[in-house]
Amino acid sequence: MRVSLLGTGGIGGTLRDLLAAGRVAGCVTGAAVGSRFPAGAVVAELTGTGDVVVEAAGGAAVRAYGAQVLAAGRDLVVCSAGALADDAVHAALDAAALAGGARWTVPPGAIGGLDLLAAAIRADGAAEVTLTTVKTPGALGVPGAGIVFEGTAREAALRFPKTANVAVTLGLATTGIDRVRVVVTADPAARRTRHEITARTAVGEYRFALVNDTLAASGGRTSAITVWSVVRALEELAARGRTPIPLKKGAPS
Predict the structure, then answer these.
(1) What residues bind NAD(+), as annotated (predicted)?
(2) Which range marks the domain in which residue 164 is found?
């Protein structure tokens, strides 16, 4: 399966290296499109050399190119889940996927336990889910220290568009982005990103504590495990037998 990358920063650049080294089972590199690539040629480049496109370029890239990629019949892996706080973006991806016969997915990224939580929510629609996140002030883009945000996952994504992907991912998998509560704390002494998920449901109470190293190239905004979450998503797509497309003329073999 050929994988094209939209974004060549912390996540995209690391994925490009892993693909080149043969460390993503069943996958090889298609195109790798960075921020300087001509905007009008982005979709053709991605879909002309890839069976699957990984978006790792931020919410603006999801809005600009996500639906076009799906409409062209290519599967899409969305890393910038915060963009889905906009219901219109979510609806556009769904409609384009239906029209193009493609699929799109959001990998768990920096958190886990979503399968268990999703099952518990099925048993109890009134469940309460809370996410507490601790990052450095620099990663959050705020001065000082202490609690800098309390609100819903949707509000968190709007307040921290580059660092709140986890909040939206959790909301989509559980009670919804308008019901998941989020607390964000800035800690100048934090060397790792910390996420704590708590859930109270009719079938049990759950707590997950995750302490993640960060990608150096991300300025502390992105957990290193996110890359491997995408790798796992790609390997699952490859194992399901996504049909390869012909290489466009002149593409590397």
Answers:
(1) 110, 165
(2) 114-211
